[in-house]
């Protein structure tokens, strides 16, 4: 008998020899590696409690890896595996996630940087991959052991995990779970599907697309720190036209996003509910100065990944531009979506007032910035542009 499965006493002791004597003897597909296994796991619904949800459910590959399912929350947040629970934050795109640095405190900047999710609570892609299966508002599995059992009970998964990570992983629940996390993270890091750099912007850098006058004006405005504050937060590299610019510095700010009253009512939260943002990240050790701050998202594919902000409060990209301009432009009195005066910040004490300062923009300049943001859409998703 070979190594015996020793995850816990709750597992039926099953030998790898018995495993091989069954239908599991077929060799894995040629060229199978950890990234491919991660892609298989990404689309596997058996990793959710009711077996009706996978990673791709909330990160649809045909829609820039966001959740486009219709639901009673009007897509502001995602519906969970139990078909009744909803999250409290808008589902972000997974695209270009491999460029996000691990969560850390930058001693030079005196700011927190990186991490996955709006609050950076996952240190890196591997840690992020392990959270949705155990989240009661998402895939709903009760514990790591339950996930490990599902993996073991799948002939393909158990065979591939053993082949790629070694038979020893089955000796502990933690090593099984870590292997699953690593495979999914490797898929995100290595597959070009997740970072294609195929937008008109990218093509323009290679001389394969000529920007229109409006798009060029928008680009100039975007990167000109004397005209706008866009690139203060939405630029990773110091030089303009870097071929792997992801349009985020991955820091955390409170930019005055208002509460989403519709979402609060839908989720039956207290009327005065405030999302703590970065403060919810255990690695900030309860520092109240981080309350209300959220990680700067990538702007790649931003034109096709509505709704916007951490709580999905805005439906249109133009609304976001007008909202940011309203801090400096007295003419921007009304939210065009509600026809009401702009609401106050959800949490005011940590508002990044200095970072929001900029020159007021004309309607034509708003048009130009919107046109520029649209050309950050990868070729595969251009069909969704309005």
Summarize the structure in words.
This protein is mainly alpha-helical and 386 residues long. Helices cover 30% and strands 4% of the residues. The protein is built from 14 helices and six strands. The protein has helices at 16-21, 34-42, 55-58, 125-129, 144-153, 155-165, 173-190, 200-205, 213-223, 230-233, 261-266, 317-326, 353-356, 363-374; strands at residues 104-106, 111-113, 252-253, 294-295, 334-335, 340-341. The strands form three sheets. Strands 1-2 form a two-stranded antiparallel sheet. Strands 3-4 form a two-stranded antiparallel sheet. β5 (334-335) and β6 form a beta hairpin. α5 (144-153) packs across α7 (173-190), α9 (213-223) crosses α14 (363-374) and α12 (317-326) crosses α14 (363-374). The longest helix has 18 residues, at 173-190. The chain is globular and about 65 Å long.
Quick structural gist:
The protein is mainly alpha-helical and 386 residues long. It has helices spanning 16-21, 34-42, 55-58, 125-129, 144-153, 155-165, 173-190, 200-205, 213-223, 230-233, 261-266, 317-326, 353-356, 363-374; strands at 104-106, 111-113, 252-253, 294-295, 334-335, 340-341. Helix 12 (317-326) crosses helix 14.
């Amino acid at each position: 008998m070979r190594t015996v499965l020793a995850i816990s006493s709750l597992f039926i002791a099953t030998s790898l020899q018995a495993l091989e004597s069954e239908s599991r003897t077929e060799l894995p597909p040629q060229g199978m590696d950890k990234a491919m296994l991660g892609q298989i796991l990404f689309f596997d619904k058996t990793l959710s409690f009711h077996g009706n949800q996978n990673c791709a459910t909330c990160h649809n590959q045909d829609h820039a890896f966001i959740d486009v399912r219709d639901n009673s929350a009007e897509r502001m947040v995602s519906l969970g595996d139990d078909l009744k629970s909803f999250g409290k934050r808008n589902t972000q795109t997974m695209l270009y996630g491999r460029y996000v640095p691990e969560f850390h405190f930058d001693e030079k900047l005196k700011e927190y940087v990186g991490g996955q999710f709006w609050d950076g609570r996952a240190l890196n892609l591997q840690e992020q991959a392990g959270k949705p299966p155990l989240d009661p508002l998402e895939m709903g599995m009760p514990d790591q052991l339950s996930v490990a059992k599902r993996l073991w009970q799948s002939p393909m998964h158990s065979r591939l995990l053993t082949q790629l990570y070694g038979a020893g992983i089955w000796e502990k629940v933690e090593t099984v779970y870590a292997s699953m996390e690593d495979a999914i993270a490797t898929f995100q890091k290595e597959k070009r599907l997740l970072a294609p750099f195929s937008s008109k912007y990218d093509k323009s850098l290679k001389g394969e697309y000529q920007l229109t006058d409006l798009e060029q004006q928008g680009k100039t405005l975007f990167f000109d720190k004397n005209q706008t504050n866009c690139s203060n937060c939405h630029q990773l590299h110091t030089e303009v036209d870097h071929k792997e610019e992801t349009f985020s510095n991955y820091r955390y700010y409170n930019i005055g996003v208002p509460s989403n009253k519709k979402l609060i009512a839908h989720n039956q939260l207290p009327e005065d509910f405030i999302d703590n943002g970065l403060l919810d990240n255990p690695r900030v050790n309860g520092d109240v100065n981080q309350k209300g701050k959220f990680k700067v998202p990538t702007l790649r594919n931003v034109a096709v990944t509505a709704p916007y902000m951490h709580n999905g409060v805005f439906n249109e990209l133009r609304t976001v531009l007008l909202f940011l301009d309203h801090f400096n432009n007295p003419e921007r009195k009304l939210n065009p979506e509600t026809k009401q005066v702009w609401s106050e910040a959800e949490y005011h004490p940590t508002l990044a007032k200095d970072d929001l300062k900029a020159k007021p923009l004309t309607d034509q300049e708003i048009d130009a910035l919107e046109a520029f943001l649209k050309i950050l859409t990868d070729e595969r998703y251009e069909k969704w542009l309005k």
